[in-house]
Design goal:
The structure holds three protein chains of three kinds. By secondary structure, chain A is mainly alpha-helical. Chain A folds into two domains: 35 residues, no CATH class; 251 residues, no CATH class. Helices cover 46% and strands 3% of the residues of chain A. A two-stranded antiparallel ribbon of chain A has the order 1-2. A two-stranded antiparallel ribbon of chain A has the order 3-4. The longest helix of chain A has 23 residues. Chain A starts with 9 loop residues before the first helix and ends in a 10-residue tail after the last helix. The longest helix of chain B is centred in the last third of the chain and has 18 residues. In chain B, helix 6 packs across helix 9. In chain B, 35% of the residues lie in helices and 15% in strands. The radius of gyration of chain B is 22 Å and the shape is elongated. By secondary structure, chain B is an alpha+beta fold. Chain C starts with a helix and ends with a helix. Among the domains of chain C are: 137 residues, Flavocytochrome C3, Chain A, domain 1, CATH 3.90.700.10; 129 residues, Methane Monooxygenase Hydroxylase, Chain G, domain 1, CATH 1.20.58. In chain C, strand 8 and strand 9 form a beta hairpin. The chains are: A mainly alpha, B alpha+beta, C alpha/beta. Chains in contact: A-B, A-C, B-C. At the A-B interface, helix 1, helix 6, helix 9 and helix 10 of A face helix 2, helix 5, helix 8 and helix 9 of B.
Chain lengths: 307, 260, 606
């Protein structure tokens, strides 16, 4: 149980940068810390591994799917002038379309066809320019960080569960490179907020379809509901962000000094308490939205019109 | 007439439960088995007391109030950091032995007692409360409930050090010299968010207290017997204030034009 | 080897024994006066029994009701104590408490606030106006944490997990203290010019108690053996509401704050029995119907308080009466109901959780009862000792030069019964006073040497349980003492039972002298219990002897054989003192005379 003496942590050897001055006898206690447990070793009797495993499965599946979907460079929209009567749906993975993929004219592209400067050996997909931002937001999110550190590299594997020993004594946490860059979360937040606007615009677009004569009419399909719901769920997640809570009021010691601040802080706190819930709901829903558009575009599913 | 809960049976049923209690000191030890007669409503600490009174009078255990208010009887019950006095026997799985062992983040003194003096040393190092001048002639301050709500949540802390025990930065990585642990990150947050306080501890949090070592696994929040939102309400807001001060170029730029 | 050489010796100007609210406040004050201060705590710093105080600290700040002032507080305290209080102390307490509360705020305490941003105050038993500054239902924790966090930066030396077993004297003056540390079992001697006792209560002498294991009457016993006088030991407060079920939590406190927030007591017939018996002294202050009581709780200044908020002694006796009459709850208590306020408040459940969070969790976790919708079962529990070391009202000095006492282990402020909330303010008001005067004493007097022979005798006594073998387990003796005190010297007392208790205590003394412990010296709870039982036997004897001597029912003492107050008994306090032959003698001492101006205040407020 005891550490060999050479491995006694420094705080017991007296090399403290702070001193304990109360009782000289107590400060020299020759006690040593218990040896850290081996990887996955624990005396917990409950099924503590379920949650990390679910995170691994859920987040892992999303990463795999979204990467695959991003590289497809097709089936990312339906509707438009060429498909009269079909509501205009655009996959959130590809939105906003800066340049269309090769040979595709979605009608959503801001700058037209695929850029000529894109290296020929690399497949061009509009999603590759877009996905890094929401991905970055999720990867630096305070909730996901704690969850995937556990699920992906066991840091820790679970509460009161032993860790893999490959880190040895050189634990760096978020104090040092590379994870110190997690502190940029708020910049991803700014982008994520902009994306909610863009996806809301896509939701609005999904209310429209082209008629055979080239005019546009309002309509509602199952896809419309999906595309409208998507930014709402993303908003519930994004505006519950810990950074946002800090920025709208948390950074002030005096909340009562402004009633608007007090109100904002209250609302964001409510969302923040449900951050994990909305993180997963919105993650799965944004994935589902892409799947829906993709399957409709490939003709597997039909986007049923309701109105 | 309000509902009165159904009269409980006064005849108590007894069951025998095997306890595996860690006995030993800093030089080593092992689990020893004891059998305890468990009756309705008993908590783990009652069982330990029963063992003490009848089978092992020298079994060392730290406890005071037995009501979850002093935070003395911290231990690991079936591997989970918990207060012995607030762990009811009927919440533990039936028919299995109950293991009780000391906290692992601190050196063992004897049996279930650990040397938690490190925590007292750390606290002393944090800059103390320094209020602004009183607002009123009688020496009092005007301060509103909405402002003190956040601070009061952290002041519920009973210093049981279970959060320190479960935190892997201390427990597995032994960063006691560079990291002050969830309890004291929260203590700093409590002082920082106090509307009266004029001291600044943000630089200390980054440079000396190792707030960056926290990787927000939220284990501290999960084990807190006072249900304090340690991670979400204390540590992350402090991380954000550290970002304001040290990592965010925009706030730094902004501050150049609008000095505090 | 000389016994003194085996001890680790520490030297200070002032040693404070006990690190609860009173001890820490005394240490801070003494340290501020520029003397070297050490604090000895039996547990870790910040774990003392003060954390268990829930409701609040009484201070007539008038933040909620501006009719409140020190005179009203003073009169309430005297009335609650049935006029056996030391009026000088009651006056100082009422006058100084507001400043002490504000001082805590300056040190970092964060009290609940009024809408105007001032410190919020709540209703409590026996206080005419809302007077208790509080933080939810964990005010004691706030107090001790504030003092602790402030105190660690004042250059005070803290000795954690060490127990003092005896005071050392030299030439009639205090010379220090001797004890051991729990961690290693090493002997320790603290040399000091002045010693402040702040060890708290003695509830552990009873079976059903709200006190933590530390409440073993150490300070009272230490003082008694050092030649100091114990005052009014018969007055042991039984808090009316302790948990009664399940058995393992029996006695754990249910704060009076539950009643302050509108909780009502009912018997098994569903009747609010407190309306039936209202003492004459309070007739003019109590609501006549349930509706008025509720309006009082809501802050209606014209309403009178509900009878549940009468003084603790009275409520405890009423509960006792209901249970004895067969109208109790299934487990021998009565029902305390806060959930009923749902009828009055739309968001009652949240309100209860916010105002009484630890009560909510305590019942949820320990008893499986949701207090927002279910009723609690409660019954009286040994809570507080009004008696203790007799001290001078101006200086907190005992009759032994250099020995001071404050907090629960001192006596005088509360008389025959303490009002809820007066304890926390007692700690800081008289802790400060004791620290101030102990420092003054230490500055004015030279150090005295400890007597090696005396140390040797104490060392032998400390180690005696190890040297005996085959003796009784000290836990068994402790349990027997608790049964004796609970059953024979409890809420309802009679001459014959108490005489039996005296015999039982004498027999336990003999058994204790032969008890033995096994194992090692490090952190051996059996050994510690053996030493603590000695203290409890001493104070149990004092409680019993004083209770026999006071042949009346007054405040916390209820004598079945003398159920009325007697006028003559209102004129004296009881003193227990060690006689030259080592036996305990009890004698009467006339009350400290009340100054005419204070008497006028009492008369005005009647």
């Amino acid at each position: 149980m005891a550490l060999p003496s050479e491995r006694k942590p420094p705080f017991l050897r007296g090399s403290l940068h702070f001193r304990y001055s109360w009782d000289p006898l107590m400060s020299q206690t020759p006690y040593s810390l218990p040896q850290p447990r081996a990887f996955l070793e624990t005396r917990r009797t409950d099924r503590w591994w379920i949650v990390p495993l679910l995170v691994l499965a859920g987040f892992g599946a999303f990463i795999l799917y979204s990467t695959w979907a991003a590289f497809q460079a097709n089936n990312y929209f339906i509707g438009g002038a060429s498909q009269p009567g079909v509501q205009m749906l655009l996959s959130p993975f590809y939105s906003p379309v800066l340049w269309d993929a090769k040979g595709i004219h979605s009608g959503h592209a801001w700058f037209g066809d695929a850029p000529v400067w894109w290296p020929a050996w690399l497949l061009f997909s509009p999603a590759l320019l877009i996905l890094p931002f929401p991905a970055g937001f999720r990867f630096t999110c305070y909730y996901y960080r704690g969850a995937y550190y556990k699920a992906f590299w066991g840091d820790p594997a679970g509460c009161a569960v032993g860790e893999p020993k490959f880190r040895g004594t050189s634990y760096r946490g978020e104090q040092k490179f590379p994870l110190i860059f997690q502190n940029l979360h708020r910049y991803f937040l700014y982008v994520a907020i902009a994306f909610i606007g863009l996806l809301a615009w896509d939701g609005y677009q999904s209310l429209w379809h082209f008629n055979a004569d080239g005019s546009r009419s309002l309509g509602v399909s199952v896809g419309t509901i999906v595309l409208v719901l998507n930014p709402i769920l993303l908003g519930l997640y994004t505006f519950g962000c810990h950074c946002w809570r800090h920025l709208v009021g948390g950074k002030h010691d005096c909340l009562s000094c402004s009633s608007a601040r007090q109100h904002r802080y209250k609302v964001v706190t409510w969302l923040n308490q449900r951050h994990m819930l909305f993180a997963w709901i919105s993650l799965f829903f944004v994935g589902f939205t892409d799947i829906y558009v993709r399957l409709c575009a490939s003709g597997t599913w039909t986007d049923w019109r309701i109105l | 007439m309000p509902p009165i809960h159904a009269p409980l049976s006064t005849a108590t049923t007894t069951r025998r439960v095997e306890f595996r209690v860690w006995r030993g000191d800093s030089s080593g030890g092992q689990f020893q088995s004891y059998t305890v007669e468990v009756t309705e409503g008993m908590v783990v600490l009652d069982c330990i007391h029963q063992i003490q009174a009848s089978q092992a009078s020298d079994l060392a255990v730290r406890w005071n109030c037995k009501a979850g208010k002093c935070g003395s009887c911290s231990a690991e019950i079936n591997g989970q950091p918990r207060l012995m006095c607030m762990t009811r026997m009927d919440t533990l799985p039936d028919g299995q032995p109950v293991t009780v062992e000391p906290m692992r983040t601190f050196p063992s003194i004897r049996d279930l007692v650990t040397d938690v003096s490190w925590n007292f040393r750390v606290k002393k190092r944090i800059k103390p409360f320094k209020p602004r001048k009183p607002d009123n002639p009688d020496g009092s301050w005007t301060m509103f409930q909405v402002d003190v709500d956040r601070v009061q949540e952290f002041r519920k802390c009973i210093e049981c050090f279970l959060c320190q025990d479960v935190c892997h930065v201390l427990r597995d990585h032994h960063k006691h010299d560079e990291f002050i642990g969830p309890r004291f990150l929260m203590y700093s947050a409590m002082l920082e968010m106090n509307p009266l306080d004029t001291e600044n501890r943000i630089a200390d949090l980054k440079h000396h207290d190792g707030i960056g070592y926290c990787n927000i696994g939220k284990c501290c929040t999960k084990v807190c017997p006072e249900h304090i939102g340690i991670t979400d309400n204390a540590i992350i807001p402090m991380k954000e204030r550290v970002v304001d001060e040290f990592y965010d170029p925009m706030t730094r730029l902004f501050r150049m034009f609008k000095p505090r | 080897m000389n016994a003194l050489d085996r001890c680790t010796v520490h030297e200070h100007d002032v040693i404070v024994i006990g690190a609860g609210g009173a001890g820490l406040r005394a240490a801070i004050e003494a340290s501020a006066a520029g003397v070297k201060v050490g604090v000895i705590c039996k547990s870790l710093l910040g774990k003392a029994h003060t954390v268990m105080a829930e409701g609040g600290m009484a201070a007539a700040m008038g933040n909620v009701d501006d009719r409140d002032n020190w005179e009203v507080h003073f009169a309430d305290t005297m009335r609650g104590g049935q006029y056996l209080n030391n009026s000088i102390m009651a006056e100082r307490h009422a006058k100084d408490a507001p400043a002490r509360v504000r001082e805590l705020e300056a040190w970092g305490a964060v009290f609940d606030r009024t809408k105007e941003g001032k410190i919020l105050q709540r209703n409590f038993g026996g206080h005419r106006y809302p007077r208790l500054a509080h933080v939810g239902d964990r005010t004691g924790l706030e107090l001790i944490r504030t003092l602790q966090d402030h105190g660690i930066h004042q250059g005070i030396e803290v000795f954690m997990e060490m127990t003092v077993v005896a005071l050392l004297k030299s030439g009639g003056r205090i010379a220090g203290a001797i004890g051991y540390d729990r961690e290693r079992g090493r002997l320790r001697v603290w040399k000091a010019k002045a010693v402040i006792l702040a060890t708290g209560g003695l509830g552990r002498a009873f079976r059903i108690t709200s006190n933590s294991w530390e409440g073993t009457g150490d300070g009272q016993a230490l003082a008694y053996h050092a030649g100091a006088e114990l005052l009014d030991m018969e007055f042991v407060q039984f808090h009316p509401t302790g948990m009664v079920w399940p058995p393992s939590v029996r006695g754990i406190l249910v704060t009076e704050g539950v009643r302050g927030e509108g909780g009502v007591l009912r018997n098994s017939e569903g009747k609010r029995f407190m309306f039936e018996d209202i003492p004459d002294a309070y007739k003019a202050q109590v609501a006549t119907n349930e509706e008025e009581g509720w309006r009082y709780v809501c802050g209606d200044k014209n309403a009178l308080r509900p009878p549940e908020l009468l003084t603790r002694d009275h409520v405890a006796r009423c509960i006792n009466r209901e249970v004895k009459a067969g109208r109790g709850s299934p487990h021998g208590g009565v029902f305390l109901d806060i959930g009923w306020i749902r009828e009055k408040l739309p968001n009652a459940s949240d309100h209860i959780k916010r105002k009484l969070p630890s009560m909510y969790h305590q019942f949820k976790q320990l008893a499986g009862v949701d207090i927002t919708s279910e009723t609690m079962e409660v019954g009286p529990t040994t809570h507080y000792s009004m008696g203790g070391v007799a001290v001078d009202g101006q200086t907190q000095a005992s009759c032994v030069p250099g020995l001071f006492a404050s907090g629960e282990c001192a006596a005088g402020l509360h008389g025959a019964n303490r009002l809820g909330g007066n304890s926390l303010s007692d700690l800081v008001v008289f802790g400060k006073l004791a620290g101030e005067h102990a420092a003054r004493f230490a500055k004015a007097n030279k150090a005295v040497e400890v007597d090696p022979a005396e140390v040797e005798a104490h060392v032998a006594a400390i180690e005696a349980p190890f040297s005996r073998s085959g003796g009784e387990n000290p836990y068994a003796i402790h349990a027997a003492l608790q049964d004796t005190m609970q059953d024979l010297v409890g809420i309802v007392r009679t001459q014959s039972e108490m005489e039996r208790a005296l015999e039982a205590i004498a027999a336990l003394h003999a058994r204790h002298a032969k008890s033995s412990v096994t194992g090692h010296r490090e952190y051996n709870p059996g050994w510690h219990t053996a030493l603590d039982v000695g203290c409890m036997l001493t104070i149990s004897e004092a409680i019993t002897r004083c209770a026999i001597e006071r042949k009346e029912s007054r405040g916390a003492q209820f004598r079945e054989d003398f159920p009325q107050k007697c006028a003559e008994c209102a004129t004296f306090n009881l003193i227990a003192k060690k006689a030259p032959d080592g036996s305990m003698e009890v004698h009467r001492r006339p009350l400290v005379p009340t100054r005419p101006d204070l008497a006028a205040v009492i008369e005005k407020m009647k």
